[in-house]
């Protein structure tokens, strides 16, 4: 290892450096760069539309020009390198991309970034830091609420949004009475978190962490 | 996704003129279905007109007691609205039975009415589908049809309509306000969806230059409201069969069924049988049904759901 490289590279740095090297090697052996540059094939790509968008992400304001096709998820991950938010199915079926927009949880994969001009976005990076975890993140560690961890950031953001919905008295499919205030029991948590899949099946421990946090949250309100 | 221009409309009129000027342009509000379809290039509009900031996001109680729901009111806001929870609980229940918390926070009322089928062959561009590509055929017949329709189907298409909300709106006799640059018309939800047709790609009476602006609920009808949904998992799945049922104070009942037809399925002419002869109701409501080996369970399941609801209601009244 060269001395100017980090002595303890993260998994992400490692993946990035090796995949870049892999692409470079592929290009040099199969597609000489001169051949690519002088391709006689017509450029069939359609013209992309670019628009400027300003959003506040984790309390930091960003203004940038983007292809209108960019989803909020791709903006976070590909443009701003906020890779805590995960891409699972990219079709709104798994919840791995859940973020909070103006405090409300949504699937970032099914929303265009240009639809969020002047919105406030909160991602997992805005919940806590490795040195100062959010209480719910602490709870996930304490209750062992993950195996591979891929769905975790979506679970966390979803749970924060879900708890705020419950505090506002919003009913769910399992709420027995639509008029009287909601009691956030385990059945309610399971139903309200059903938009977040966990392929490892850590559901029991995810529910334990959320139930525990909700209990403490109630006491502090 | 194919490139598209994107304009945020400032008013409904602004949105209407943009779409009138641009052939193939589409309105977008929540985008939870349209963007999914655009990613798969099943939809490829050259222009998206965002109507979510045109002031159509309010639920208004009118002096005559009716409720006007703006087209871009989210599914979660509508389900949680106190006027809806008190006066139209079947609508709250249907909304809460659909999708996930995240999706309901984004999906809108007008978009929910216009969502497309979840038939797997509509989504798979390698397969024949008359709804996606008119004239290409129907791969669903003889294919995976567990979720698909058993009544009001045609040789061209056996897709089912996936909305829960619309099933409740159908039992409530809601009306849909359609605006264009030339005027406004009000369509009862009964007449909004085409159902079985030789042109399954044309699903509703809405014209290309029209925008759903509001959904209007009649004055509360009272009674006991139920929304029962049977699906392959306990939450976050489309209906195999659902029923929006209201038992009215005068002893009569009405019901609309979801998951069985290309539109919310209601047979008013047989509803007097709901409280007297459920076998006969089901026989009439499903006369002319055409099921596949995979979805023939839906008719007995519908009967089972109705029987359960009637018994639940009787017990609650006793």
Automatic annotation (TrEMBL), chain A:
The entry's keywords: 2Fe-2S, Iron, Iron-sulfur, Metal-binding, Oxidoreductase, Signal, Ubiquinone
Listed Gene3D superfamilies: 3.10.20.30, [2Fe-2S]-binding domain
Domain 2Fe-2S ferredoxin-type: 51-127
Gene Ontology MF annotations: 2 iron, 2 sulfur cluster binding; metal ion binding; oxidoreductase activity, acting on the aldehyde or oxo group of donors
Any Pfam family the entry gives: Fer2
Protein name per the record: 2Fe-2S ferredoxin-type domain-containing protein
From TrEMBL, chain B:
Top-level division of the source organism's lineage: Bacteria
Record keyword Repeat present: no
Cross-referenced SUPFAM superfamilies: CO dehydrogenase flavoprotein C-terminal domain-like, FAD-binding/transporter-associated domain-like
UniProt-listed InterPro entries: CO_DH_flav_C, CO_DH_flav_C_dom_sf, Diverse_Substr_Oxidored, FAD-bd_PCMH, FAD-bd_PCMH-like_sf, FAD-bd_PCMH_sub1, FAD-bd_PCMH_sub2, Mopterin_DH_FAD-bd
PROSITE patterns for this protein: FAD_PCMH (PS51387)
Organism (species): Alteromonas confluentis
Keyword check for Flavoprotein: yes
Protein name: Molybdopterin dehydrogenase
Domain FAD-binding PCMH-type residue range list: 1-222
GO MF, one example: oxidoreductase activity
Keywords annotated in UniProt: FAD, Flavoprotein
